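Researcher: Please predict.
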Amino acid sequence: MISVAIVEDIKDIREPLFQFLSAQENFLCEIGAESVEEFIEKAKIALPVDVLLLDIGLPGLSGLGAISIIKDKWPKLILLC
């Protein structure tokens, strides 16, 4: 099972993608966040994430600006921007 999280500020993109991944047999999608800050908070209590789908143009901390922060906290996490 691959644990996937999504950080996307556009609800019309984030929610269908979250639902699609959640319905897949080999994926577990527990986190759908609209900001990096929200992802970090949710990731503290969720199962470890294997893959993060990260939008680069986000409100607050941008996806590009968050890469080093996320990799410092979760070095084994695979980031797809």
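Model: The CA atoms of residues 9 and 34 lie 4 Å apart.
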